[in-house]
């Protein structure tokens, strides 16, 4: 494969900031509040199938 094209510093910084907003900040807020990522979710099948 050919080497990837070099990106400008602004593009890289923008991508890093977008990742931080999308992934790191929500995780950090949940972690500080003592919550898990699944605490607000409802089970797909809340009743057991026996």
TrEMBL record:
Name of the featured protein: Uncharacterized protein
């Amino acid at each position: 494969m050919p080497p990837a094209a070099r990106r400008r510093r602004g593009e890289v910084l923008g991508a890093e900031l977008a990742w931080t907003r999308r992934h790191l900040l929500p995780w950090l807020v949940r972690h500080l509040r003592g919550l898990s990522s699944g605490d607000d979710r409802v089970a797909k099948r809340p009743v057991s199938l026996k």
